[in-house]
Specification:
Layout (H helix, E strand, L loop, with lengths): L1 E8 L1 H5 L3 H10 L3 E8 L3 H7 L9 H8 L4 E9 L1 H9 L12 H5 L8 E3 L3 H11 L3
Antiparallel strand pairs: 1-3, 1-4, 2-3
Helix pairs in contact: 3-4
Bound molecules: uridine-5'-diphosphate (UDP) and magnesium ion.
Length: about 130
């Protein structure tokens, strides 16, 4: 099934000029970049975006981090895009990510793990709408 998913290149990766490298990984793996924009979110916006995690001990740090510098938000489209993107990203903690995944290649730590990707069709819809309302 052709799906759309939301991808974010997080501040640690934008700061290290990895945007084109990461975009190339998506394009080389049949994920078409339909929309892309570079923005910086406020801490309030980050807190709203990550509100599913509001009860977690890492929530405050996570929201501060996402709002700490420019990010690149993208809509990716392709066959099973949600799962394919999650596979390309690798495990949340780069230490546990498989060889060849984005987080293995570029992630620094569990918080500075370079990319976000939607984890379900429902969340993909919500997250795309969060950044690309029109
Ligand atoms: N995170 C963290 N500490 C943790 C777990 C998660 O800092 O112990 C951060 C991490 O950057 C992760 C984000 O919170 O990407 C969202 O967590 P989630 O479990 O949804 O991981 P993801 O879907 O990004 O792999
Ligand atoms: Mg998640």
């Amino acid at each position: 099934m052709i799906q759309q998913t939301l991808s974010i290149i997080k501040p640690d990766a934008v700061e290290r000029n990895l945007v084109e490298n990461i975009k190339e990984i998506f394009s080389n793996n049949k994920l078409k970049i339909l929309k892309t924009k570079k923005i910086q979110v406020t801490k309030e916006e980050a807190s709203d975006f990550y509100k599913v995690h509001q009860t977690k001990p890492f929530y405050d740090k996570l929201c501060s981090y996402l709002s700490s510098g420019p990010i690149v938000v993208m809509v990716l489209e392709g066959e099973n895009a949600i799962e394919e993107n999650r596979k390309l990203m690798g495990a949340t903690d780069p230490k546990n990510a498989d060889e060849g995944t984005i987080r293995k290649k570029y992630g620094i730590s569990i918080d500075k793990n370079s990319v976000h990707g939607s984890d379900s069709p429902d969340n993909a819809k919500k997250e795309i709408n969060f950044f690309f309302k029109n």
